[in-house]
Design brief:
4 helices; alpha+beta; YjbR-like_sf; Phosphoribosylglycinamide formyltransferase; YjbR/MT2646/Rv2570-like
């Protein structure tokens, strides 16, 4: 049984996240379990998620799931904007709701890009990380 699509193709949050993710070397996008997943060999960012015990996709429909550096994870968890996502949380992933991640003029896309970069570096092949560093 295939999963229903859990995102809007015209979503402006997804559009901006897609620009950030697909600018990374070797990055691509696929829909898995109804959500956009950004990957090289392994997934490094997911758009949308749920928390453990709540399978309603609406509260975190506009969230990004990333795998932060282990050294940053504890500090990020102290920030109420970050939550442990269902399914991925036990493996070190965190979720940031973009609707609740507001700077004075909207989403802090620099922060999102840093989180995506860290997650990419944890999952991408060494060759692609070197290519990123050479830019």
């Amino acid at each position: 049984m295939s999963h229903p699509q859990m995102f809007d193709t015209g979503d402006p949050y997804l559009r901006r996240l897609r620009e950030i993710c697909l600018a990374l070397p070797g990055a691509d996008e696929k829909v898995s379990h109804g959500r956009p997943n950004f990957f090289t060999r392994k997934v490094f960012a997911i758009y949308g998620g749920v928390v453990k015990g709540d399978h309603d996709p609406e509260p975190y429909r506009h969230a990004v799931i990333v795998q932060p550096d282990e050294s940053d994870r504890a500090a990020l968890l102290e920030d109420p904007r970050f939550v442990v996502p269902g399914y991925y949380g036990p493996y070190g992933w965190l979720m940031l709701d973009l609707r609740n991640n507001r700077a004075a003029d909207g989403v802090d896309w620099d922060e999102v890009a840093e989180l995506v970069d860290a997650s990419y570096r944890r999952t991408a092949p060494v060759r692609l990380v070197r290519e990123l560093d050479a830019r």
